[in-house]
Each structure stands twice: as C-alpha cells, then as structure tokens.
Amino acid sequence: MNIKEEERRARLLKSRAERLPDIKKQFEEAQKRNFNSNFGPGGKDENLVAKPATKKAAKAAKKAAKPAKETAKSKAKTEAEQRKVNLSVSTKKGEMVHHQRMLSQDVNAQATQHIIGVPVNKSRYNGYNGEQITNAKLKNMRPDPESVRIIPIGGVGEFGIGKNMTVIEYKSEMIVVDMGVLFAGEDYPGVNYMIPDIKYLEDNISKVKAICFTHEHLDHIGACRHLLPTFNPYTPFYGTDFTIGMIEKQMSELEDVPELNYVKVDPFRHEQIKMSENLSVEFIHTLHSIPGNTAIVVRTPNGVIYLSVDWRHEERPMGIQTDYERIDEIVAKEGIDLMLNESTNIDSPGKHPHSEYDVGENLGKVMDHYANGRVIISCFSSQISRIELVLKEAAARGRKVAFSGFSMINNVEVALRAKSIKVPKDTIVKMEDIIKLPDEKVCIVCTGSQGELNAVLNRMVTGAHKYIKIKSTDTIVFSSNPIPGNEPHVVNTVDGLLREGAQVIQNGKTHLTNIGPLHLSGHAYYEDHVEFVTRIHPTNYVPYHGEFYMLEHNAEMAENVLGIPHDRILVADDGDIIELTPEKTIRKCGRIHVGNKLYDDADQPVHEAVVKDRIHISREGIFVIVLTLNKKTGHLMKTPDIVSRAFIYLDNSEELIGKIRHYLRQKTDKSISTDPEMKVLKEEIKEDITHILFDATGHTPIVIPVINKV
Ligand SMILES: [Zn+2]
Ligand SMILES: [Zn+2]
C-alpha cells in the first residue's frame, strides 16, 4: 500500500468514526419514545393479534355465490356461418379471447391508473371506520351548510408526487391553493405530464375568490399555463416575488399572453389578506429547497387551518430561518384547528443530518481535488441556494460558472430579478465564452441529473451538445438524488460518462469517493415531522402531498406517536370533501368530480383512448389489410396489401402472409355488395385474421381491415 492509499483509508475511517455517533444518537432518540405500533389498543392490527381469525370465518368467505350460468348461445344458423372459412389454426378461439381479455385488462390498468371514480380506500383513517365508501352511500350524505369544506383536487394518493391543488370553501366563497403538474412515468407512452381536471371549479367559477401559490416548484405551479386563463381575469393570484416571477415566465411562453391579476405578497409582513367575506389567508415563510417558499394559514369561521405545503427543517439554514416565531404566536393565541401536513419524506428516518452549507463545502472540495479539470455540476434547476453556493465556491477558486439548460437559465434569471440569489462579481459567463477558458477555470451547472434523455448532461455525453463534449479530465457531480422511477435513466447517464473516462461523483455514494453529502432533500424527515406537528399542536390532522403509503404512514405517526385521536385524522383521496364543522371536528362528506388531463411534450392534450392504443401497439403491434373489392360483386380485384408495424417483420413471414392471402381469397369468394354486408364482412375478417395471427405468434395486434370498393 502506498502512502496516498494509506492516507485515504485513514481519512475514510476517520470520517466514518465521526459520522457514527451521530447516526447512533438519532437512532437512540427514536427509541426513547412510544413505539409507533399498530398492535396497541385501538391500533390497526389490534384485533388481528388479540383474536386470530377463525377457520370458520375463512370457510364462510369461501362460500361465495356460484357464478351465474352462461346463457345458451343462439343456435340459429347465420349468414356468417355460411361464409365461414377454414382458418386451419390449432389454437381455440377461446384462447385468443382470453389473451385479448388479459391484455385489455393490463392496458386499462396501465392507462387509467390515475382516473378516479370512487377509489379503493379502506384505510382505518378513511373517515368511514375503514369501510369502503360507495356511490349509494355518498348519495345519502347530508352536508353541513355551516361547515368549511377542504377538498384536495389533486396531490393526495397519486402515483408519484404532484398535481397539488387544494380548495378551501365556505358557503359561496372558494380559495384555491396551488395548481401543479404530475410528470407521467413510462406507463404513459407519449405523455409528458398531467394536470388536475378542474370541472368542479369551472362549474363554480364565480365562487373562486383567490388563488394562492405557495412556491415555484412545478408540482405546485406547473398547471398554470393551462388553467389560469380559465378564471375571471380579475381573480387575484397571490404568491411571493420569486413564485409570481416564475408563473409570469411560464405564462409569457404562451402564444396569447393573458393579462392576469398577480399580487405579490411579503410573508414577513404577517398580513392577514382578506380573500372574501369570511376567509382570509396569511402566508408564512418556511424553509424548503427554493426561495420564496411559504406555508399558508387560512382563517375561517370554524377555525384556523394550517397548510404546511412543502417544508424542511434546518438548524443552520442558508437565508432566513422558518418563521417559527410567527407560527408559535398563532398557535399560542389562536390555536390550529386543522393541519394539512405534507408527507413526502415521512418514510425517511431521523432528521436532516446536514445542511445546505455542507453541500456547498463538499462541492468546493470536489473543485479542489480535481483542480486541473472542468467541474460539471448537475442539479435541479430550481435549487437556487445550491446554485448560489456553487457560484461562491467557484469564485473562491477563480473558476467561472456557466449555466446550461433552458429551465436552469430561466430559474437563475427569475431569481436574479427577484433578488433571491447573491452572485459574486464577474463569475457568471456565457456558455460560448467559458469554452475559451482553460479547463481549470471552468465550472458548468446544468440540468440532467435525473438522466433525462434530452437534457444537457446526456447531450454532452453523446456529443450532441453545441459547446461541450465530455472528456476524461472532466468531473461530473450529481448534486441530487434520483426521483423514484428515474434510477435506470440516471444509471444510463452515469455509464455514458464513465465510458468517456470522466470522474463521476454521485450523492449518497460517499463510500466510493469520500466526498459527500452533495444534496439535501427539500422535505422534512420523520423526526422533523414529529417535532413540528408537536409544535403546531393541531386539533385535527390531514396528511397530504404524498402517495397513499406516505399519507397512511403520516397518519400513523400522528396517532401512535403524537397521540392525536384517531377520529381527528383523515386519509383522503383526490375529490373527497372534508368538512371542518363549527364544533371543530372533521369528517368526510361526499365527493366532487376529479380526474386528470394528459399532455404531451408539445403541451398538447392526449386523450386516454390514444394512450390505450399506444400501450396496446407497444405490446402487440398493428396489422393493416387493404382489400380492393368489386363494387357490384364484392370479389377481390387484386392481391391484398398487408402492412405490419411493431408486430412481425413481413419479409421473414412469407408462410404466414401466404396463409392470410389464401384466407382472404376464400373469404371474398361469395358475392356481397350491400353496405351492411360489407360491414359484417369487415368484422369477420378482423376477427379471423386476429385468430390466425394469434395462432402463429401468440400475440393479438390491432388488426385494421380497410376495404376499397371500385
Ligand atoms: Zn416543493
Ligand atoms: Zn411539492
């Protein structure tokens, strides 16, 4: 072992030794309080443990009603049977039908997983004692006209984090909080994002008194371009400088830029903005991973509602600490009757173990260590504090910084205008200028940390970037974590970088590089929640901003650890109406229409049926037959044209194609000429061909017969 290696090992061991007590301490802290158990009295699994289910019950369940007998098939000989052609297949038609049914079930499940009727929710926090609510029961519910209604239109129980939108309603007054997008996963071919269906607001448009935006993240403002023009142009849109700046930027990209009523708020003024006769809103400054972030306090005739929105806690924050003073004041003087608390990182144990400053220092260490090459830092474009730290660290080392990526440049511009970022003198240069500098003077901040195919980082790898091609002396830092689902893409990008011989440093892999942490999540961890909810001391509690398991875990924390009574906690779904009654209790009372609108990457709407076809085609392909028939006799005039896409390669399938041609000749042997007959013939051909193809390949592509009559 050489000296350098020995030093490196010693350093590693030392840093591990330094970290260990911290981790141990967090663990011990967690052990001190009540075990978050569902087995305790009143807990989810209490009955399961105390009284194990008897075999009797299981037997009773098995005695399900027998399936109804199939109705007898019509025996009548039809014309169709007379036209029947021997398909010479070995599989039964039933097998094909079964395959088609399974396929369409899969396709439906994939394409409609976000479409909400009455979702399954038998959580014991569902507000109905764990029983599934039905349309029939919903119809019989009597809303309390004096209650304040809280309705998540999006953002709870989604497949992913996004589409955040909440309505607070009292009599004929409504306030909307946020209008976000949800980025579609690969389950949705050709769909880039979805936005909430706001039919409920459209039907009540005159009641909408104000729309409040809590911060600039796209899961909170991304739907503005589609939704804002829907509202009365006098409707005020509230938000902090930076948030409104980004919304304006988004709207300015539209062809017809609408004139809208933006109102900038300063959360440090603690202003109670009267939105309507009975509702007022106060914006509260809280920490997140972005400037101008706020929580929202809504004062209603039935009490005070605290919407946490996105937040994290830091002991040593960059910028101004969460306005705990104001929060404590409201809690002490008025009390919080209902808290809606975000759930994103509820599954992350402990607290945030480091601060944004540590990230900055570590980025500086990377620049020192790889002093002779270019340093390329990839992070989320909205991470303005991170970018500020990069600028500081780079300036201290005489490096210049260039930004690359559309959203990155947009964010920096808006942050500069809103004075949300401090920039050292003469540090930022344009991309086209930075390439003229020697490598050791270069730092680039770019998008692509999620492995997005068309983002800057990947273009640098493939050589498609206008100015930069990755070389072996480059060091690339992933100052981010992959969003769940993006991992394979990130791996792809990392592989590409490594193949070019570059150094890659990812957050969360300190054991490989001895540098880290390089990222700080914008959302509170479990212990942060325990502390903060204790501080708020809410009478009622509704977890939101999360997938279903996050909401459930958040609710369990509230009950089992914090002792909030079970009947004061609700796990809601998009569309559920939550009533805050004059007695300051909460209950669910009915549902409104909710759903999704899908959009592609050109911001054009995509219909659900199109998505289903795309999924079907991607799995089974498409098969088109063009028949030219005599107008009078219905006989085949020439050899049918056959087109196969995403299914089989025709040149390799002569036998099968021959069989199909033979079938088509036989099928068109009998004279037919009327339109209804033609229609029937088309259907029969479709079914028969599907069967022949299934017999040969085990797949059922979309078969499209086209009949031309000449
Ligand atoms: Zn956020
Ligand atoms: Zn969010």
Written account of the structure:
The chain is of the alpha/beta class and 710 residues long. It contains 23 helices and 26 strands. The strands form 5 sheets. An 8-stranded mixed β-sheet has the order 8-7-6-3-2-1-20-21. Strands 9-10-11-12-13-19 form a 6-stranded mixed β-sheet. β10 (280-285) and β11 form a beta hairpin. The protein is globular. Bound molecules: zinc ion (ZN) (2 copies). The site of one zinc ion has 6 residues, from α8.
Distinctive features:
single chain; 710 residues; six-stranded mixed sheet; binds zinc ion; 23 helices; 26 strands; globular; alpha/beta; eight-stranded mixed sheet
Brief synopsis:
The chain is of the alpha/beta class.
Taking Cα atoms only, what radius of gyration do you get, to the nearest Å?
31 Å
Strand order of the largest sheet: 8-7-6-3-2-1-20-21
Structure summary, number of beta strands: 26
Helix-and-strand structural type: alpha/beta
Helix content estimate: 25-40%
Give the names of the bound compounds: zinc ion
Strand share of the residues?
Answer: 15-25%
**Stretches with pLDDT under 50, minimum 5 residues:** 64-73
Q: What's the arrangement of secondary structure elements?
A:
Layout: H1 3-32, H2 46-50, H3 55-62, H4 79-82, H5 93-111, H6 135-139, E1 148-154, E2 165-170, E3 173-177, E4 182-183, E5 193-196, H7 199-203, E6 208-212, H8 218-221, H9 224-227, E7 236-239, H10 241-252, E8 261-264, E9 273-274, E10 280-285, E11 294-300, E12 303-307, H11 324-333, E13 338-342, H12 356-369, E14 375-378, H13 384-396, E15 400-404, H14 406-417, H15 431-434, E16 442-446, H16 456-462, E17 475-478, H17 487-499, E18 503-506, H18 510-513, H19 526-536, E19 540-544, H20 548-561, E20 576-580, E21 586-591, E22 596-599, E23 605-606, H21 608-620, E24 622-629, E25 641-645, H22 654-667, H23 675-697, E26 702-709
Parallel strand pairs: 3-6, 6-7, 7-8, 12-13, 13-19, 14-16, 14-17, 15-16, 17-18, 24-26
Antiparallel strand pairs: 1-2, 1-20, 2-3, 4-5, 5-22, 9-10, 10-11, 11-12, 20-21, 22-23, 24-25
